[in-house]
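Thread amino acids onto this structure.
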């Protein structure tokens, strides 16, 4: 028999549904993803650490779970919310259902919720904290929700020790703030030699391996929580080509003296239009972030804005004018989403090879 569950938001709004994953209580930041596919990549994307993810597409799980389409070894979301979870997937690669996978990995999930109404609420009120619970919500739940805060999430998803991946090409130092597997795969496909460092690594240790270039990865949370990383980046940009992706892009901006702010409800999905201001071309991109670089804090003498989001005009890319350094807010490796901007890895490696 299906067990009833509730999603309660910090403003007191309650949605009723039924559990289809682990049947437990969990708190997190409630965000929505607009992708029609790619739920397995979403579940395993470290940038979703600490968040309860709502899928706006009404039927989720129809191609099951396989051993290939993962972005990290385990699911990283705190909770998962869908309109309808498919019980009988149909795909030759599938090894288990979505519900089985979530139960196996102790991820709380709930279905039967009006995800359209929930998404409209978030778009109107902004991202809110939420609680999934098997019990009728109480005033105490609301108090605890308003006190809840996710502290230093990058520390929970970064690699613990330095490791290397062999290759005969350009040597790239990857600072792991919550790296997606397909960022590493994109470098491996270009025959790079890769050294992966934990997020808190000092600049001196990175420079000691003498990389040709440095890549700053995606990751969860507020970029301004990563104080040590910003200081490290200030040193690295003075002597190495650097590419920042998503959180890495925001950290590049902070290192240049700019500021960041939280978006009302973030960009999460695989269909975000971005214009390349330097080329006059528009790309459809994959995105997952809740913060953005503030326009008015950019030092135009040092930084050029290279990309903008066509939906809300926010900054999607920047470059240092006097260094071989650039960052993009979107994901050139996609997964899920279109690979239209994968050439940015080639551009990065060209800078490293010169």
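Threaded sequence (354 positions):
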């Amino acid at each position: 028999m299906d067990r009833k569950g509730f999603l309660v938001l910090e403003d007191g709004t309650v949605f009723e549904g039924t559990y289809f994953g682990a049947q437990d209580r969990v708190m997190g930041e409630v965000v929505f993803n607009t992708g029609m596919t790619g739920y397995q990549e979403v579940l395993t994307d470290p940038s979703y650490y600490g968040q309860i993810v709502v899928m706006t597409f009404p039927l989720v799980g129809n191609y099951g779970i396989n051993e290939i389409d993962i972005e990290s070894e385990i699911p990283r979301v705190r909770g998962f919310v869908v309109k309808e979870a498919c019980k009988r997937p149909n795909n030759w690669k599938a090894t288990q259902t979505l519900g089985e996978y979530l139960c196996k990995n102790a991820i709380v999930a709930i279905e039967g919720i009006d995800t359209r109404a929930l998404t409209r609420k978030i778009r109107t009120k902004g991202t809110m904290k939420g609680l999934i619970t098997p019990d009728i919500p109480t005033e105490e739940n609301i108090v605890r929700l308003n006190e809840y805060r996710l502290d230093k999430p990058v520390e929970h998803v970064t690699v613990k020790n330095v490791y290397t991946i062999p290759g005969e090409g350009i040597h790239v130092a990857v600072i792991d703030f919550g790296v997606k597997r397909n960022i590493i795969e994109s470098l491996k496909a270009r025959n790079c030699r890769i050294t992966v460092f934990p997020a808190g690594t000092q600049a001196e240790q990175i420079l000691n391996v003498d990389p040709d270039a440095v890549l700053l990865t995606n990751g969860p949370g507020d970029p301004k929580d990563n104080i040590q990383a910003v200081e490290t980046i200030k040193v690295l940009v003075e002597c190495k080509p650097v590419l920042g992706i998503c959180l890495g892009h925001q950290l590049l901006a902070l290192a240049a003296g700019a500021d960041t702010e939280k978006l009302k409800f973030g960009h999460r999905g695989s269909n975000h239009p971005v214009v390349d201001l330097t080329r006059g071309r528009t790309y459809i991109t994959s995105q997952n972030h809740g913060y953005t670089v503030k326009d008015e804090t950019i030092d135009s003498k040092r930084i050029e804005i290279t990309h903008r989001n066509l939906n809300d005009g926010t900054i999607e890319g920047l470059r240092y004018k006097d260094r071989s350094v650039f960052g993009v807010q979107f994901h050139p490796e996609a997964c899920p989403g279109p690979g239209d901007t994968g050439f940015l890895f080639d551009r990065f490696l060209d800078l490293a090879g010169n």
